[in-house]
Amino acid sequence: MTFLSRRALLMAGAALPLAAPAALRAQPAAPRLRLRLLETTDLHVNVYPYDYYRDRTDDTVGLAKTASLIAAARAEAPNTLLFDNGDVIQGSPLGDYMAYSHGLKPGQMHPIVAAMNGLDYLCGTLGNHEFNYGLDYLGVSLAGQNFPSVCANAVKADGTPLVAPTRVFTREMVDEAGAKHSLRIGVIGFVPPQIVQWDQANLSGKLTTTDIVEAARKYLPELRAQSDVVVALCHSGIAGGDAKAGVENAALFLAEVPGIDAILTGHQHLVFPGSDFANIAGVDAKRGTLHGVPAVMAGFWGSHLGVIDLSLEKHAEGWKVANFAVEARPIYERTADRKIVPKVEAAAGVLAAARTEHEATLAYVRQPVGETRGSINSYWALVADDPSVQIVSNAQTWYVAQLAKTAGLGDLPLLSAAAPFKAGGRGGPDYFTDVKPGPIAIKDVADIYLYPNTLRVVKVTGAQLREWLERSAGLFNRIDPASTAEQPLIDTRFPSYNFDVIDGVTYRIDVTQAQRYDNDGKVVAPDAHRIVGLSYKGQPVGEAQEFLVATNNYRAGGGGNFPGADGKTIVIEAPDLNRDVVVRYIVEQKVIDPAADGNWSLAPWPAGAVVSYVTGPGAGAFRPAGLAATEMGHTPEGFTKYRLGHAG
Predict the structure, then answer these.
(1) Domain annotation for the chain: domains and CATH numbers
(2) In this structure, what DSSP letter does residue 69 have?
(3) How many CB atoms lie within 10 A of CB 576?
(4) Distance of alpha carbon 638 from alpha carbon 432, whole angstroms
(5) How confident is the model at residue 23 (pLDDT cuts 50, 70, 90)?
(6) What is the reported pTM?
(7) Cα–Cα distance measured from residue 390 to residue 416, given in angstroms and rounded to the nearest whole number
(8) Strand partners for 329
(9) What does the alpha-carbon distance between residue 297 and residue 271 come to, in Å, rounded to a whole number?
(10) Peptide bond preceding 273: is omega within 30 degrees of 0, i.e. cis?
(11) Do residues 587 and 576 make contact, with C-beta atoms less than 8 angstroms apart?
(12) Which candidate, 537, 247, 508, places its Cα nearest to that of 385?
């Protein structure tokens, strides 16, 4: 390359406007390097493409499938790094089998860790469900990894981090011209600070958490100074609104902290870039940015692989991101006729790593514990009292009755709160409980009650009980009684596990009223009251009347921000899991008939209102008595849509 002499430059001064472009073109091009970042998130022990609850293969899940996408993505780009964003060791029957039946002793390796160890992860972080089985179990699981995990906002009681807050990795990369460079990749991780509430029994006195943004501001300056590229592993979702300390879904606010080049998100079980996050200020849901920072969320259970391509340029002050591209690649697609078409085959090496434990889990979940006379399904659980919720409430009431007497609380009215866990939504049109009459096995109970929650009992007033139900009724969109246009009944942003049905009282829900609480549990319509006719044994519930409510540790500890459930109202901490309570109830009863008792219903709306509800294709055979529902066809995602007749 020819450079101009100082004299020539001076002589060209008079013609600078014409000479400058030529001079600029003569400068050596800055080295450019393409760096590919890959993300798995919210795997929840889904190694195999298998639905243990239904005891059949499932092409929509499984790290073995995601591994094939990882291999293809690596083949496309030489400079590729793989990360995991948390929620690894809990969330499927394989996880429960390992924790409760097999056990995990020091030196043993968890099957999903064994599977991940063969995929060359650079680093991971911790998800909130990592803590469900206790810190000792988590420690053994992490010890088996051949890659480190980072987390900047979880601190042990002695003030030291649970795991390293940050890590810096040096890797040799090749630029576009074929030259090699030593690149320093800084990684920082975060977990929702609410884990100390959600897993109080496991973490009280042992662990504290700090706000995600606060932790980022503490550690990022030093990490940035040591790194050429900084990647944030944020097991926290994307939510708009004002940034406040301690928020659960903080990825958008994290993006405003200087020094981050890419954010890998998760926790919400959604896909980003994608329409779920449209119209949030600061979010580009098409290009995949949070306040301009490239970000990705790769679904859940291995459904997607997150891909961020960074185009880096090397300047005197270091490497800078010149451009980027973001996508979430799926392992399957759904056809117009609702069939699942796998896009990849399962990786044999990943299957082999967990085969022994997978087969043991199949035997574990197939063990019968009793018999059910009726079907237990959740197709209509969001619009009518439902057998899948009823069986949980029946079991909780049966279990707590004796505990309450022992605790000296037997004179208080006993209620039970339970929610439908599998009700379609993000999980798709097959994500419903559907247990046939006949023998009922552990896999069926796990299908009814997904999470390894521990039973708790809270004491609340009638006023708190009413507000608890108002918060729960946020599931429903407001139905405009004057409109004749189609109005979807369900607010799809509201997770079904926050739709608590409280058994032992009777009430109706008036969906023509506005949502009193927003999705964060804040009162936004103080004059709105959806809960009507709230009664106990035929009498209106008094504001000061006291009740016991059987629930779980997540709700009792503040999960979902429900009035009357903030960790301070707990009066009984039971030693058993809610799911085990259901199993013990069925074993005790031998034969169950979990017919819903109809203690709640939707209040009437005008007959001219076109109110729609989407559910699974199998719902038609289980329409609740008294619920008018006319099929309207199928959605592109494979759900069946119904028009609900005016309630009453």
Answers:
(1) 1-29 (no CATH), 32-357 (3.60.21.10), 372-644 (3.90.780.10)
(2) H
(3) 13
(4) 13
(5) very low
(6) 0.75
(7) 10
(8) 305
(9) 5
(10) yes
(11) no
(12) 508
